[in-house]
């Protein structure tokens, strides 16, 4: 039986699970335009859409992923094209200068939606990750298929509670993203490396608990 995976940010992605492929459909519930981006991982092929514009309340055309696809998706915000024709975004920017991400990932802070299709035991795995910080609320839910596929997500606006040290602001002074402590401070302690590179030495910080408490 097929399964629908609904990735909800304030922006949603719906996944239709087929026998040989999975179809993603994006819906933007934000009160502003977003620009979804996709990036394949490992030896997976790029999707037919690696970046596109999606207006407020709009639903995308379906995007099909082949069997075994591994990758991530995210939403870019505050995007515009400058006088020279270069496209860029306030959050999640791919750095390609165009709407398509073309194999580039989103710059942090950004809320990530991650997938491994037909993984271990032929199962699909998905999660909403804040390892690269946060830019928009997001969640994933599943319809159909088999197994107990629960909702994964972060429906909370962490930007509204982001500490000053972690805030990413746009040119107008609005908080548009919340950085991870590793991104903000780049220390071994916050990045869990060096002497802090083991589970016993890499302890939760007051900053990481902001994300954990908001979106366990």
From TrEMBL:
Disulfide bond annotation, renumbered to this chain: 79-89, 94-101, 154-215, 162-178, 182-191, 192-202
Top-level taxon of the source organism: Eukaryota
Record-linked Pfam families: Thaumatin
Assigned keywords, A-Z: Disulfide bond, Signal
This protein's record includes keyword Disulfide bond: yes
Keyword Cytoplasm: no
SUPFAM superfamilies the UniProt entry points to: Osmotin, thaumatin-like protein
Cleavable signal peptide: 1-21
Entry-linked InterPro entries: Osmotin/thaumatin-like_sf (IPR037176), Thaumatin (IPR001938), Thaumatin_CS (IPR017949)
Family annotation (PANTHER family): OS03G0233200 PROTEIN (PTHR31048)
Record's protein name: Thaumatin-like protein 1b
Organism annotation: Iris pallida
């Amino acid at each position: 039986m097929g399964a629908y995976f609904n990735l909800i940010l304030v922006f949603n992605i719906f996944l239709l699970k087929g026998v040989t492929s999975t179809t993603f459909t994006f819906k933007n519930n934000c009160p502003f335009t977003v620009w979804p981006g996709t990036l394949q991982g490992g030896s997976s092929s790029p999707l037919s859409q690696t970046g596109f514009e999606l207006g407020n309340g709009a639903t995308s055309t379906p995007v099909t992923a082949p069997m075994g696809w591994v990758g991530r998706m995210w939403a870019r915000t505050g995007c515009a094209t400058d006088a020279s024709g270069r496209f860029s975004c306030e959050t999640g920017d791919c750095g390609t200068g165009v709407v398509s991400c073309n194999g580039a990932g989103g710059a942090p802070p950004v809320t990530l939606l991650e997938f491994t299709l037909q993984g271990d035991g032929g199962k699909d795995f998905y999660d909403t990750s804040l390892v690269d910080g946060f830019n928009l609320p997001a969640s994933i839910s599943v319809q159909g298929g088999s197994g107990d596929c629960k909702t994964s997500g972060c429906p909370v606006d962490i930007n509204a509670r982001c500490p000053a040290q972690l805030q990413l602001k746009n040119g107008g002074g609005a908080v548009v993203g919340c950085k991870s402590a590793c991104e903000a401070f780049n220390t071994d302690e916050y990045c869990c490396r060096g002497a802090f590179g083991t589970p016993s030495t890499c302890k939760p910080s007051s900053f990481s608990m902001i994300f954990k408490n908001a979106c366990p």
